Amino acid sequence: MNFFKDKVALITGSARGIGKSIAAHLAEKSAHVIIVDILEEAIQDTVSEFTSNGYKAVGSQCDITSEEAVSSLMKDAYDRFGSLDILVNNAGITADTLLIRMNLTDWQKVMNVNLTGTFICTQKAAKYMMIQRSGKIVNLSSVIGFIGNYGQANYAATKGGIIAFTKSVAKELAARNINVNAVAPGFIKSEMTDKLSEEIQKKYLENIPLKRFGTLDDVAKLVTFLCSDQADYITGQTIIIDGGMI
Predict the structure, then answer these.
(1) 3-state SS class at 221
(2) pLDDT, tens digit (0-9, with 9 covering 90-100), for 55-86
(3) What's the count of helices (H) and strands (E) in the chain, helices before strands?
(4) According to the model, what pLDDT value does residue 190 have?
(5) Angle, to 10 degrees, between the axis of helix 40-52 and the axis of helix 17-28?
(6) Which of 7, 12, 71, 74 has the highest CB neighbour number within 10 Å of its CB?
(7) How confident is the model at residue 150 (pLDDT cuts 50, 70, 90)?
(8) Does some domain include residue 26?
(9) Contact present, 73 and 60 (Cβ < 8 Å)
(10) Is the distance from CB of 141 to CB of 159 less than 8 angstroms?
């Protein structure tokens, strides 16, 4: 399916997990994907896997908390391909601990990657999308940004911030035909959630009406929709995908 033929999509944190699944769905529909991550070996493995499947993919190692590195990333992508049509801000980390035990380093490193990284990537990509007068930006938030969670004050703050950030940026960029939306997954089976104990996983499952955890594909399909022409009249929204949990 040539749904994204000639479209260039840059996905952060896409060497594995949700980001990799999003990149695969876009590539499967003929997008030229740029795999961006901090993990160089994982980038190479993912690009090799994609190209062996006939997908158009290149990789770039980048620290998204560095304004200089991100500026260079976006310029190189635009100069190489002549457009930058889709940005998916997926990269994120956790450093969970109770508030009383959380040190400033735990707070700042999560804030820097999840929220400041999203800001930097959006700002630098928007420069080229404004020139084109078109673009799709999707930010990965979380249901934790709505409901909070024990031991995740830092993570919740970033994900709630992404929701507010998305609304504001959508208003600013709408005049240039750039759509900005967010996706808020619930409990999605991934490397990050697999670290949780069976007891905690069971507790979450009891609160999901659909009685299953989400999959990487569930999230990727929603993000792919928001990146497509079918979502041209959707902007400033945060869509929750959690099986009815909240």
Answers:
(1) helix
(2) 999 999 999 999 999 999 999 999 999 999 99
(3) 9, 7
(4) 78
(5) 30
(6) 12
(7) very high
(8) yes
(9) yes
(10) yes
Amino acid at 193: T
Task: Kindly state whether residue 20 falls inside one of the protein's structural domains.
Answer: yes
Q: How many domains does the chain have?
A: 1
d(CA 75, CA 192): 31
Contact (CB, 8 A) for 180 and 135: no
The lowest-confidence range among 24-33, 97-106, 162-171, 192-201 is: 192-201
Position 20: which residue type?
A: K
Q: State yes or no: pLDDT of 2 exceeds 80.
A: no
Joined together, the tokens standing for residue 41 give 């070996």
Q: Token pair of 144, please? A: 């934790």
Q: Which residues are catalytic?
A: 155
**Residue 246 domain-assigned (yes or no):** no
Provide the residue range defining the domain that includes 55: 8-241
Q: Which helix (H) or strand (E) holds 33?
A: strand 32-37
